[in-house]
Design brief:
Shape: globular
Number of helices: 10
Distance between the termini: 36 Å
Strand order of the largest sheet: 1-10-7-9-5-2-3-4
Radius of gyration: 19 Å
Helix content: 25-40%
Strand content: 15-25%
Number of strands: 11
């Protein structure tokens, strides 16, 4: 066996081991979305912040508008100081009356940009449920129905997306990131209301509107760059439930293509 083949075998073996460990852990402690949730009539508002996202915004918003089995009242896209073609990319979708596009030209100095955009949009939202989705996420047609059917009496449901991966880098980094996060914030403690350990993914966060506002919403975490974690910590601090679940094919997000993209 040549040194090259030996190294390749070690790399492949390491990747398989990491994937196996990560999969075993998540099967035991990770929540899963229900597959066959019933149709739900509760009005849902989806909020999507965008800052120069012309390459992905149409796919994200189009997928949300195509949800089935739920009462999708509105999709609010907040254009945060965009200088590219993000607004133009949304024009073909604006024939759908549920789509509302709002533009911000400035952000207060004591706010993080994404947090300010979501706060602004949430103040305009009228649904009984609020869903915050990043614009690089593409959801499947039943994701909102499954999410609504899974949240139960939890205050926050956050979803871990499937990654659109394309190489060894992704295959290695995804389980490594998962293991690192779980080592610091174990899922079994995240789901335990007696514990203050919290975790969430800003890619998808669902709240009952009245609880989101009672907890102060995004205004309460205005300066936080990790606003998803800060919101989850507020939920746990008040003794309420956080559910961090895997979509298992229900949605995808673009993974970093290389190291330069990651940092």
């Amino acid at each position: 066996m040549t040194p090259f083949i030996a190294i390749a075998c070690i790399i492949v073996g390491t990747i398989c081991l990491l994937i196996g460990v990560f999969a075993a852990y998540t099967r035991r402690f990770g929540a899963q979305l229900v597959k066959d949730a019933p149709t739900n009539a509760d009005p849902i508002s989806v909020l999507i912040p965008a800052h120069n996202e012309e390459h992905c915004i149409a796919a994200c918003v189009g997928a949300v508008l195509n949800q089935r089995g739920v009462n999708l009242k509105e999709v609010i896209v907040i254009l945060d100081r965009c200088t590219d073609g993000t607004a133009a990319a949304l024009v073909p979708l604006q024939a759908d009356p549920r789509l509302r596009v709002m533009s911000l030209s400035a952000c207060p100095s004591d706010w993080a940009g994404k947090v300010h955009a979501l706060h602004y949009g949430s103040m305009q939202a009228t649904g009984d449920w609020l869903v915050f989705i990043d614009c690089d996420v593409v959801v499947g047609p039943d994701l909102l129905r499954r999410a609504r059917g899974s949240i139960g009496d939890n205050t926050l449901l956050s979803l871990i997306m499937d990654f659109r991966s394309s190489g060894i880098w992704d295959m290695l980094m995804i389980p490594l990131l998962g293991i690192a996060v779980n080592a610091h914030r174990p899922l079994r403690l995240v789901h335990d209301r007696r514990s203050k350990v919290a975790a969430a993914s800003g890619q998808f966060m669902m709240f009952p509107t009245h609880r989101y506002r009672a907890l102060g919403g995004h205004a309460a975490v205005r300066g936080e760059l990790l606003e998803d974690l800060a919101l989850a910590e507020r939920v746990k601090h008040h003794g309420e439930g956080v559910m961090l679940a895997f979509t298992n094919g229900g949605a995808q997000v673009e993974m970093y293509s290389d190291w330069s993209s990651f940092h």
